[in-house]
């Protein structure tokens, strides 16, 4: 294992999607090309549509966050004594919107009689839940960057460790986006698919909502080596930019997206030819897929393997970047690439992964792009580079 003391490494991982409750189940089903998307009607006053739900009812965000934090902590082999030096950077693009909507309905039906504590439903709620779950006493941050939230959170956690603000951190993002407002709003925009999610396909028709999240434990390499911890991989550089163009659309020049990729490579000390695979955002929308395909072709070339997982898990919004990083770490650990589930006829001349197969991987890029032109690209390295 080639790890320098100044490196930031990942020692714990937990994830949950409609595919399964654990990282192992998600990995196995994704490698097999399975999808958890199905026709669902979570609210009787809204029409049914394709959604990737974990159960019959929408997820409870607090329970999801606490469960993932504890599982990641356990997977890292950490105990109570390690929590004092642990930071928390956990975000969510919707946070407790589900609870706030329920309170709004109660207020309309019985004015002044709203039940529940609205303070527990604010945007930083998931980060607080994660901290309490493992009794973390270090710095706490709760980023929100639309669908780029997960990558942004992991990048912030790595920076806290590099600056010496904490020895380790729990980072990532969670999402329970199946709410009336979210479904109705995206449908009004025309963003939601009518039959399924087909990233980069000629017949793609929009994205499919999904539930879940991923949390990882990052540590300084020195701390990880001192306790002989297992290592999934390294967090290398990150590039984060903003288009400053439109509330939802990308700048059609893709310039700031290009700069995010370039900054990530520069800060990671990598050349485009050293990237062994890229796990794309892959939302199955016309604009996103065109933008990502253009960036991959122009910067990384047309032969680099391209992965996309939202045809299996649905789009978990703010949590999607954390899931992509989590799956990227599993790719490095297992030395394998996952297929673009839902892709049948490619709309772009790229090397899309059709089947989950073994492949030698040293460096991998994770793409994440959010409404408002928020661009986040993170590089991962295997433990032996």
Task: Describe the protein's architecture and organization.
With 385 residues, this protein is α/β, with parallel strands linked by helices. The protein has one domain: Thiolase/Chalcone synthase (Peroxisomal Thiolase, Chain A, domain 1, 3-Layer(aba) Sandwich), CATH 3.40.47. The chain is 32% helix and 21% strand. The chain contains eleven helices and 15 strands. The chain has helices at 23-31, 61-75, 97-109, 125-134, 149-162, 180-189, 221-226, 255-268, 286-300, 310-313, 320-334, and strands at residues 8-17, 38-40, 49-51, 86-91, 140-141, 168-175, 212-220, 233-242, 277-279, 305-307, 336-337, 351-352, 357-358, 363-370, 374-381. It has an eleven-stranded mixed sheet, with helices on both faces. Strands 2-3 form a two-stranded antiparallel ribbon. It has a two-stranded antiparallel sheet with strand order 11-13. The protein is globular.
